[in-house]
Design goal:
about 400 residues, alpha/beta, Rossmann fold, 2 domains, eight-stranded mixed sheet, five-stranded parallel sheet, binds cytidine-5'-monophosphate
């Protein structure tokens, strides 16, 4: 999945012949999962039609502060547009627009939006070779870099003038690749390895029956996705669950029993920076699972259970251990039990769920949690989608490990 997925991107198109390539750039951004709004300078409209770009981006293309044809229309608010964007791409960026960006000259909607935005700004210059190497242009490139703007360098080759040299706008694929690599290099968990256990465990009674629980694995999967989104390499050790959790940075190992989960955890725990234990592990397992299906003979059946290893506590007891996060699902005296678990399992953070809270715990798509640190400071996060709760948990971890 591209790091551009879910991003709100404002594409600024200025008046150069390379503007025709932005049709394909918009297609690629949409394909990567981004939402795209296009703002064109008046000159850009001579090179590519707003109709083409609005059809491809599925949003009206804006050029002026007001839409003159529509007397009922309100103004196009550059401040709102600037704050809406997660990132701005100015492509092609002409020498003229670059010079205005440097000096804060605001004579169109795009420049007003650029000056109002707080997000990253990428610009892909496109101009003839002599303009590209003119001292005023190179000085302007340096100035924009000093403002924190990111230049996607032009390529070498045949130019619209018929001359050949440096000044061709980077190809749309190169623009996407540049931005993706830059975003990836900035992700807070890049270079970190994380482990997460999720879902239930099934403890065999015989070849067809088991002792299990209602955990869906949704919370763990949401955390795994968020870890990967923040750049971490993720080992997801998952009990039986139908939840789909796919990302190129997630390596999923499916297990059934607590013992298998324990073995999978200890196989890699030494190379892990952060370990999160969200699985609902069975505390006990049948001591002697039958080889054959147990027949219905007597009125009662007694199954002897033995204790499973406590995986979280086993990692908590390690001398050199990763940053450790456990979960606690309680039905009564929640805080008291959770505080005892922080001590017993030696967690850096414990995420408490209460079965008494509506919209929290097993099966549902939302959760309400209290985060408890090792000094027993608590903070409660009100009910929200598990994907959002996952973000809060990961942000809390990032704050503490970076
Ligand atoms: O003791 P309790 O089961 O309530 O603790 C819950 C926490 O411990 C969760 O983080 C769970 O994943 C972990 N756990 C474990 N191995 C067990 C039991 C629980 O890792 N056998």
């Amino acid at each position: 999945m591209s790091v551009l997925s879910g991003k709100k991107i404002l594409l600024g198109v200025t008046g150069g012949i390379a503007a025709y390539k932005t049709t394909y750039l918009v297609r690629l951004l949409i394909k990567a999962g981004a939402t795209v709004k296009v703002v064109m300078t008046p000159a850009a409209r001579d090179f590519v039609t707003p109709l083409t770009l609005s059809t491809l981006s599925k949003h009206p293309v804006l050029t002026h502060f007001t839409n003159e044809e529509d007397e009922n229309d309100t103004w196009n608010n550059h401040v709102e547009l600037g704050l809406w964007a997660d990132l701005i791409i100015i492509a092609p960026a002409t020498a003229n627009t670059i010079s205005k960006m440097v000096n804060g000259t605001i004579d169109n909607l795009l420049l007003a939006t650029y000056c109002s935005a707080k997000c990253s700004v990428y610009f892909a210059p496109a101009m003839d070779l002599d303009m590209y190497k003119h001292p005023s242009t190179t000085a302007n490139f340096d100035k924009l870099a000093s403002y924190g703007n990111l230049m996607i360098p032009a390529g070498d080759g045949e130019l619209a003038s018929g001359l050949s040299g440096k000044g061709r706008m980077a190809e749309p694929e190169e623009i996407i690749q540049f931005i993706e690599q830059h975003i990836e290099s900035q992700l807070p968990l890049r270079g970190k390895t994380c482990l997460i256990t999720a879902g239930p465990t099934y403890e065999a009674i015989d070849p067809v029956r088991f002792i299990g629980n209602h955990s869906s694995g949704k919370m763990g999967a949401a955390i795994a996705m968020e870890l990967a989104t923040q750049g971490a390499r993720v080992h997801l050790i998952m009990g039986p669950s139908h939840v789909v959790c796919q990302h190129e940075l997630i390596d999923r190992v499916n297990i059934k029993s607590a013992q298998q989960m324990y073995d999978a955890v200890h196989e890699i725990i030494n190379v892990v920076d952060v370990a999160i234990f969200s699985a609902a592990v069975a505390d006990y397992r049948p001591s002697n699972p039958a080889d054959q299906k147990i027949k219905k003979k007597s009125d009662t059946l007694t199954i002897k259970l033995v204790k499973n290893p406590d995986i979280l506590a086993s990692v908590g007891a390690m001398e050199k251990k990763p940053f450790l996060v456990g979960f606690a699902l309680e039905t009564d005296n929640e805080l008291e039990h959770a505080f005892a678990k922080v001590e017993k399992k030696q967690t850096d953070l414990l995420i408490l769920n209460s079965m008494r809270d509506k919209g929290a715990g097993f099966g549902v798509d939302t959760n309400k949690i209290t985060i408890i640190d090792k000094d027993k400071n608590t903070s409660t996060i009100e009910t929200k989608p598990k994907t959002e709760v996952a973000k809060d948990i990961i942000n809390e971890i990032i704050k503490r490990i970076l």
